[in-house]
C-alpha cells in the first residue's frame, strides 16, 4: 500500500529523493517447491508437464521440474503469511493516494529455475512521475526493477514494473473543490 | 502438434503464423483459484465492495493471473526445448467476473539469434467478450533448429 502524504505534494521533490533507491538483496523464504507451482498452473489451467510432472521433466534438458516464468518473483519473496518485517520501497514512496493499479510489466528470463533452487531479489526504484487517469487527474506512477538471482549468484530474471497510485473519488472531488489537504 | 510436449522448430515457423489460442471463463471459482495461485490478497481482486468503493465497477483479475495466462500461451507453443526470453504486457483494460477470455498470439518476425536457438517475435494478447482486447503483449521466444 503506498504512503499518501498530507498537505502539499511536489513530484519533483519526490523524484529527487527516491529515484535510484534500492532494497537490500533478500532471499525468498522457501526453496522453489512443487505445490505452489501446481496451484499457480491451476489458475490458468496450464497442464505443461515441465511444471507439473517430475518424471517428464527429468527426461528433458532441465533434468527437473522448472518453475513457470511468472513464479520467479513469487519464490524470491516471503509470501503473505506469516508477515515479516522487511523493507517495501513501494510502501515508503510518498504518493497522493492509497489506491493502486498495476499497469505495465516486462520480464526478461535468462536462466531456468528448478525445484529446490533458492532465489534472491533486489528492487530498485527507477522512475516516478505524474500522469492523469480517468479516476484521478493527478495519479502518481512508480516504476521499479526487480533483479532475481539464484543460489549460485546467477541472474535468472529481470522484471520492470509500472504501478499507478490514485486517490479515492472523494479525495479527487475534494481537491477539485479546492479543499487543502485532500489526500488518500 | 500437441501443446507443451511436442517440439516446434525455428525453421518451421512462418511470419504471420497464429499461435493456438485458448479460452478461460472467469467464474467465481476461477476468482478463488486466482487468489490461491497468486497468493495476492489485495481486496480489489476478490472483494466487490472494496473494488466498487475504489471506483471500479467490480473486482478485476490481478497481474500474476494475467502474466500466467500469457505465459501459458507461449510455453505451450515453444515446447520443452524452447525458451521464453522476454514477455512484456500492458494492463490497459480489466478482466472481470463472468468475462470469457481468449488468449491469442501471432508471429511478427524471426531472427537467427546469437546462439544455437533461433529467435521469434510474437504479439499476443488477452481479449474478453465484454470490452475486447484488455492486455496487449509482446514476447521474444527462442526455438531449437532442426538437425
Rg of chain A: 20 Å
CATH class of the domain at 10-25 and 63-143 in chain B: Alpha Beta
Strand order of the largest sheet of chain A: 2-5-6-7-4
Structural class determined from secondary elements of chain A: alpha+beta
Strand order of the largest sheet of chain B: 1-3-4-5-2
The average pLDDT value of chain A, as a whole number, equals: 92
Major pleated sheet of chain A: 5 strands, antiparallel
Shape call of chain A: elongated
Series of secondary-structure elements of chain A, N-terminal to C-terminal: EHEHHHHHEEEEEH
Structural descriptors:
heterodimer; A: 184 residues; alpha+beta; Thiol Ester Dehydrase, Chain A; five-stranded antiparallel sheet; two-stranded parallel sheet; 7 strands; B: 147 residues; elongated
Structure overview:
The complex is a heterodimer of chains A (184) and B (147). By secondary structure, chain A is an alpha+beta fold. Chain A has a domain at 3-27 and 84-176: Thiol Ester Dehydrase, Chain A, CATH 3.10.129. Chain A contains seven helices and seven strands; from the N terminus they run βαβαααααβββββα. Chain A has helices spanning 11-18, 34-43, 49-52, 54-58, 72-75, 89-92, 169-176; strands at 3-4, 26-27, 94-95, 99-109, 120-130, 140-149, 155-166. In chain A, the strands form two sheets. In chain A, strands 2-5-6-7-4 form a five-stranded antiparallel sheet. In chain A, a hairpin with a 5-residue loop joins strand 6 and strand 7. Chain A is elongated and about 65 Å long. Chain B has helices at residues 28-38, 48-53, 63-78, and strands at 22-25, 83-90, 100-111, 118-128, 132-143. Chain B has a domain at 10-25 and 63-143: Hotdog Thioesterase (Thiol Ester Dehydrase, Chain A), CATH 3.10.129.10. Helices cover 22% and strands 32% of the residues of chain B. Chain B starts with 21 loop residues before the first strand and ends with a strand. The longest helix of chain B is centred in the middle third of the chain and has 16 residues, at 63-78. Chain B has 147 residues and is α+β, with helices and mostly antiparallel strands. In chain B, strand 4 and strand 5 (132-143) form a beta hairpin. Classes of the chains: A alpha+beta (184), B alpha+beta (147). Chains A and B meet through helix 2 and strand 4 of A and helix 1, helix 3 and strand 2 of B. Strand 4 of chain A pairs antiparallel with strand 2 (83-90) of chain B, so a sheet runs across the interface.
Amino acid at each position: 500500500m503506498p504512503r499518501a502524504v498530507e498537505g502539499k505534494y511536489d513530484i519533483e521533490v519526490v523524484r529527487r529523493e527516491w529515484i535510484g533507491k534500492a532494497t537490500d538483496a533478500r532471499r525468498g523464504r522457501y526453496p522453489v517447491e512443487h505445490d505452489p507451482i501446481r496451484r499457480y498452473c491451476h489458475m490458468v489451467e496450464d497442464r505443461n508437464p515441465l511444471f507439473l510432472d517430475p518424471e517428464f521433466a527429468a527426461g528433458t534438458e532441465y533434468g527437473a521440474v522448472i518453475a513457470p516464468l511468472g513464479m520467479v518473483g513469487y519464490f524470491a519473496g516471503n509470501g503473505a503469511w506469516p508477515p515479516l518485517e522487511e523493507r517495501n520501497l513501494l510502501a515508503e514512496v510518498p504518493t497522493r493516494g492509497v489506491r493502486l493499479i498495476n499497469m505495465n510489466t516486462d520480464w526478461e528470463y535468462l536462466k531456468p529455475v528448478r525445484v529446490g533452487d533458492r532465489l534472491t531479489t533486489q528492487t530498485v526504484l527507477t522512475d516516478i512521475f505524474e500522469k492523469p487517469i480517468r479516476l484521478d487527474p493527478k495519479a502518481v506512477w512508480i516504476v521499479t526493477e526487480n533483479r532475481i538471482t539464484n543460489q549460485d549468484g546467477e541472474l535468472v530474471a529481470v522484471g520492470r514494473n509500472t504501478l499507478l497510485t490514485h486517490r479515492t473519488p472523494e479525495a479527487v472531488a475534494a481537491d477539485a473543490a479546492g479543499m487543502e489537504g485532500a489526500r488518500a | 502438434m500437441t501443446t507443451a510436449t511436442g517440439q516446434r522448430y525455428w525453421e518451421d515457423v512462418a511470419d504471420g503464423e497464429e499461435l493456438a489460442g485458448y479460452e478461460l471463463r472467469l467464474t467465481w471459482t476461477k476468482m478463488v483459484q486466482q487468489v490461491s495461485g497468486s497468493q495476492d490478497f489485495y481486496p480489489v481482486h476478490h472483494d466487490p465492495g472494496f473494488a466498487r468503493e475504489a471506483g471500479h465497477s467490480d473486482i478485476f483479475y490481478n497481474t500474476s493471473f494475467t502474466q500466467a495466462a500469457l505465459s501459458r500461451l507461449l510455453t505451450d507453443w515453444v515446447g520443452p526445448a524452447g525458451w521464453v526470453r522476454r514477455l512484456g504486457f500492458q494492463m490497459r483494460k480489466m478482466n472481470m467476473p463472468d468475462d470469457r477470455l481468449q488468449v491469442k498470439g501471432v508471429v511478427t518476425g524471426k531472427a537467427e539469434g546469437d546462439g544455437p536457438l533461433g529467435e521469434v517475435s510474437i504479439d499476443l494478447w488477452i481479449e474478453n467478450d465484454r470490452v475486447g482486447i484488455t492486455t496487449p503483449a509482446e514476447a521474444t521466444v527462442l526455438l531449437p533448429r532442426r538437425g
